[in-house]
Amino acid sequence: MTVSWPASLRNVLAPVLRRAYRVRVTGAHRVPRSGGVLLVANHDGLVDATLLAVCGPRPVRVLTEPGAAAEAWARLTPLTGRIVLRDDSPRSSLREAVRAARAGDAVGMFPEGPLNESVGPSLRPTLPGAAYVQVRADVPVVCVALLGTHGARPTDPPPPGAEVDLVFGEPFCPASPSDPFRASSLQDVAEQIRQRLADHLRVARARTGRTDAPGLRAAGDNGAL
């Protein structure tokens, strides 16, 4: 029998996180039970990638930037199923994400880019990483609102016992570009994803009564812990 390390570690880490925080998951039934899917989430806190990977209805292979985790955790990255965005070859990491989605995996990305060290909007330019994966893999997109995932600063974890919300939206498929190899076409898809995620965050914050997260920043390739 083949051991699925991502699924096994998910079974271990999920109870730990739920003991450390009061994790509330809403809309998990909206995530397709099988087949490739791209989960796009806001990135406001240190534990975002771990929560996205293990607290949803199915294992998620999250793209994460190098150096986003402690050395001991980084050594476990291959076992967790995470995909590290390589500084020297980011396109190869995105291709790995495309292959995973085409193979039927759930892939998680943060269109805002890497975690900021301070709360507030970023002026970084929009990057079409999530759009690249969606167009190449031709999979549906599910927006995820991660709320309450940081302490006083984004780089601080939530205090023990804090309420953390994961709110999943309805799956959607962006309008297919006429020429998927043109940068402007990918930018159009990136904007569709950015706007859908921004709308989902507004609704999720209103429904949960959460006002403790910074606004949606400009879309980017990914980010993570």
Q: Helix amount, in percent?
A: 25-40%
CATH structural class: Alpha Beta
Roughly how many Å apart are the termini? 30 Å
Poorly predicted regions: 70-74, 120-125, 213-225
Could you provide a short overview of the structure?
The protein has 225 residues and is of the alpha/beta class.
Give a structural overview.
Helices cover 36% and strands 15% of the residues. The longest helix has 26 residues, at 183-208. The protein is globular. The protein has one domain (22-208): Glycerol-3-phosphate (1)-acyltransferase (3-Layer(aba) Sandwich). The protein starts with a helix and ends in a 17-residue tail after the last helix. A 7-stranded mixed sheet has the order 1-7-6-2-5-3-4, sandwiched between helices. It has 7 helices and 7 strands, in the order αββαβααβαβαββα. Helix 5 packs parallel to helix 6 and helix 6 (129-137) packs across helix 7.
Keywords:
36% helix; 7 strands; Glycerol-3-phosphate (1)-acyltransferase; alpha/beta; 7 helices; seven-stranded mixed sheet
Can you lay out the helices and strands and say which pair or pack?
Blueprint: H1 5-20, E1 22-26, E2 37-41, H2 48-54, E3 60-64, H3 71-75, H4 77-80, E4 83-84, H5 90-102, E5 106-109, H6 129-137, E6 141-147, E7 163-168, H7 183-208
Parallel strand pairs: 1-7, 2-5, 2-6, 3-4, 3-5
Antiparallel strand pairs: 6-7
